[in-house]
Amino acid sequence: MGQLKGDTGLAIFSTTKGPPIPAMSPGMRSPLLPTGARRLSFGRLELRGYTMAKRYLDTDVFTAAVQRLETVFDNFERVYVSFSGGKDSGVLVHLALEAARRKNRLPLDILHVDLEAWYRYTADFVTRILSRPDVRAHWICLPIHLRNSVSQLQPHWLCWEPGAKKRWVREMPRHPGVISDEGHFSWFRRGMEFEEFVPLFGKEFSQGKSCACLVGIRSDESLNRFRTVKSWTKCRWEQFGWTTVLPSGIVNAYPIYDWRTEDVWTAYGREGWDYNRIYDLMHMAGLSLPQMRLCQPFGDDQRRGLRLFKILEPETWSRLVNRVQGANFGNRHAAKSGNIFGNYHIALPPGYTWQSYCEFLLSTMPEGVAMHYRRKIYVFQRWWRKRGIPVIPDEADPHLEALKKAPSWRRVCKVLLKNDYWCRGLSFSQTKKEMERQAAWALRFLE
Predict the structure, then answer these.
(1) Are 70 and 99 in contact (CB under 8 A)?
(2) Do 110 and 252 have their domain in common?
(3) Domain of 84: which CATH number?
(4) In this model, does residue 2 exceed pLDDT 50?
(5) Is 184 inside any structural domain?
(6) Residue 141 domain flag
(7) DSSP label at residue 24
(8) Which residue among 80, 155, 359, 374 has its CA within the 20 to 30 Å range from the CA of 57?
(9) How many CB atoms lie under 10 A from the CB of residue 185?
(10) For residue range 423-436, what is the model confidence (pLDDT) as tens digits?
(11) What single-letter DSSP state applies at residue 165?
(12) Are 162 and 40 within one domain?
C-alpha cells in the first residue's frame, strides 16, 4: 500500500495488479483507474481548531467507517439508519447491516421518509432494502409539508395528501413496514415539516434509552454538509467530530462523512452490494458523478434536476406534471440564466429602476405570497438602516452583493425572480414560526 500524508489532499491507494495509481496534486481530479486496480479510499479526515485544514490519518475511509459503526453499536442501546434510497444512505445501510450482524444487533431498524415524488427505480430499491429479513422497516408515508419552488400559486405541497389520491405520483407502497395512518404517532399533524418529523421520530424511537441515528452525509458534497461535521459550536458525543447531539439527546452519527463519491461506488463494486439502478440511467444520460444526486425534485436547489425525470422516466414525469403546479415550467427554465429564475445575470427591463421592478414583480404575485416577501423586505431594510444605510441603493458592488455584504434592490429582485421563498439571498433563514404559518396556509389552500 502506497501512502502520502499531509494536508495536500493526497490519498491512500491499493492495487491488486497492474501499475500503481498515480497520486494527485492539489486541485487535480481523480485519475482514471488502471485496469485491475482498486482504489480503496481517501484517508480519514479530522478537523482541527477553527481552521478549515484537513489532516489525513493512517487508515482508509472504509476501515474508518467500520470502526465508527462498531463504536456506535457498542455504546448505544437503540440505533437506526436514516435511509433516503440514494447512493450514500444505501452504502451506509450495507455497512450498518454488516456491523449489526457482527454485534448481534439484527434486525437493523431503518427509517425511510417517503416523499412520494420518487423515481420508480428508487421505489424499487427502497422496497428491496426494506424487505430484507435482517431489516425492521419504518416506512413513513404521511402527508408532510414540502417546498415547491417552481410555482408562486402553489409554493408548497403535501406528499401523500389524502384528497389528491388520484393524482399521486406513485401508489401507496404495500409493505408491512409502511406507516400511513396519521394517528400512528400521537405528535404527528398533517402538514408537518420534514425537519420537524425526523427528530420527533428519533425521540419516540429511543424509548428513553441511549439512541443514535446513522446519517449518510458526506462533507465533500457541499459546504453546508462540511460545516455540519466541522462545527465547533455544536454539541458532540464524546468529542467525536462525526457526531452531533440533538436537543432531544439523540445523537446523529455520520460514519461516511469523509468518503468521496468515488469511494462510494468503489465500495458498491468491491462488495457487490445492491444499489439504486437509476444511477445507471443517469450515467447513460451523460451526468458526471457529482451530478448524480437524488432529492425532493421541487426544492429551491433541487429544481434543476426536474428535467431528468422527463429523460429518465417519462411515465413518472407525466405524473409529476399532473401532481404539482409549475413542474413543467421548472423543467423548461430552472437551469437557465436570466430573469426567469434570477440565476446568474439578470437584466433590468427598460423604463424601470431595480426598486420599481421589485414593486412590479410583487404586484404580479398572489396576495399572500407578496405579503410574505414585503415583510422580509421591510426587515431587510430595517436591519441595514440600523447599520448606517438609511436608504437601500438600487445597485451596489456586484462582488459585495454576491457576498451578501452590501444591500441593494437588485439583490431583492434576484430573490423575487428565484422564488426564493425563505429569502436566503437576503441572509434570512427559515424559522419554526414561519414553518407553522406556511403549513396552516398550505392546508387552507388544499381544502
Answers:
(1) yes
(2) yes
(3) 3.40.50.620
(4) no
(5) yes
(6) yes
(7) P
(8) 80
(9) 16
(10) 888 988 766 665 55
(11) G
(12) no
List the single range of 19-28, 359-368, 391-400, 428-437 with lowest mean pLDDT. Answer: 19-28
Clarify whether residues 37 and 69 are in a common domain: no
**Cell 445501510 belongs to which residue?**
93
Residue owning grid cell 501512502: 3
Same domain for 257 and 363, yes or no, is: no
Q: Which amino acid does the sequence have at 43?
A: G
- Peptide bond just before 390 cis, omega within 30 deg: no
Contact between residue 120 and residue 313 where contact means Cβ atoms under 8 Å apart: yes
Q: How far apart are CA 21 and CA 36, in angstroms?
A: 11
CB 401: neighbour CB atoms within 10 A? 17
Does 248 fall in a domain?
A: yes
Q: Dump pLDDT digits (tens) for 228-273.
A: 787 778 899 998 989 999 999 999 999 999 999 999 999 999 999 9
Asked if residue 202 and residue 120 are part of one domain, the reply reads: yes
User: Cell 414560526 identifies what position?
Assistant: 433
The residue among 276, 299, 370, 289 whose CA lies nearest residue 86 is: 276
| Whether residue 54 is found in the same domain as residue 64 | no
Query: What pLDDT sits at residue 169?
Result: 87
* Residue spans of alpha helices (H) in 386-431: 398-402, 409-417
What SS3 string covers 257-274?
Answer: CCCCHHHHHHHHHHHCCC
The angle formed by the CA atoms of residues 110, 263 and 7, to the nearest 5 degrees, is 120
- pLDDT reported for residue 150: 54
For the segment 11-19, the average pLDDT, to the nearest whole number, is 31
Write the single-letter amino acid at 33.
L
3-state secondary structure of 338: strand
Helices first, then strands: H and E counts in the chain: 15, 15
Quick check: 249 and 44 in contact, CB under 8 A?
A: no
In a domain, 278, yes or no: no
Give the domain-ending residue among 16, 37, 59: 59
Q: Closest Cα partner for 42 from 4, 71, 68?
A: 4
Judge contact between 117 and 297, C-beta under 8 A: yes
State the pLDDT at residue 353: 93
CA atoms of 45 and 260, how far apart (whole Å): 11
Domain of 6 in residue numbering reads as: 2-59
Instruction: Name the grid cell of 86.
Output: 440514494
CA distance 252 to 149: 29
d(CA 155, CA 7): 44
* DSSP three-state, residue 128: helix
Same domain for 64 and 23, yes or no, is no
Beta sheet of 12-15, edge-to-edge order: 2-3, 12-15, 37-41
Q: How many domains does the chain have?
A: 3
Say yes or no: 203 and 77 in one domain. Answer: yes
Place of cell 434509552: 209
Residue 237 CA to residue 252 CA, distance in Å, equals 9
